Amino acid sequence: MSEINVYWRLIQEEDRLPTRTKEWWEHQHVSWANNRTSHPRTPRQFGGNALLSINKAAHPFLMAPIHKKQARRLHCKDPRLISNFNALFKQFAQPYNLFDRVTQLDNRKQAISKEAAINEYEAIDLIRCKAAAFAESKCRKLRKGSIAFSPDLNAA
């Protein structure tokens, strides 16, 4: 179902889709999605989707297994790599005044609205994630050809 126009967190439990359709089928599973970036004050919210799986489709053991990829991590045993990562992170974050923005937000968090604080935290986190990805991509660079060319080495 699409465009169901409901913010599910504000609906009472007895009015939610799983509770209202509980006795319709032998087995069921309900998944729903809605806009979570803004928090409405009323249960009416435009958009959203709901997926109702019934009978055999509701059994999770019939679904294909989910394979999660392992996260690629930097090895932090080499102090040169750590200092290089930190320098690249600061290089990316400096034009955005990331560290000053964090300090300013921490100092004025009681004086601003919750919505403004959330928006600022999200903006800071986005910059932080981009800076970490930038630094990590530069640290992962393969260092090939660090030995100068020589005919003797080429012959070997």
Commentary on this structure:
With about 160 residues, the chain is mainly α. The protein folds into 2 domains: about 10-60, no CATH class; about 80-140. It contains 5 helices and 2 strands. The chain has helices at about 15-20, 80-95, 100-110, 115-140, 150-155; strands at about 30-35, 50-55. The radius of gyration is 26 Å and the shape is flat. The model has no long low-confidence stretch (mean pLDDT about 75).
Summed up:
With 156 residues, the protein is mostly helical. It is built from five helices and two strands. The chain has a two-stranded antiparallel sheet with strand order 1-2.
Parts with pLDDT < 50 across at least 5 consecutive residues: none
Task: Give the N-to-C terminal Cα separation.
Answer: 68 Å
Give the ordered list of helices and strands.
Answer: HEEHHHH
Secondary structure: helix percent: 25-40%
Keywords:
single chain; 156 residues; mainly alpha; 2 domains; two-stranded antiparallel sheet; 5 helices; 2 strands; flat
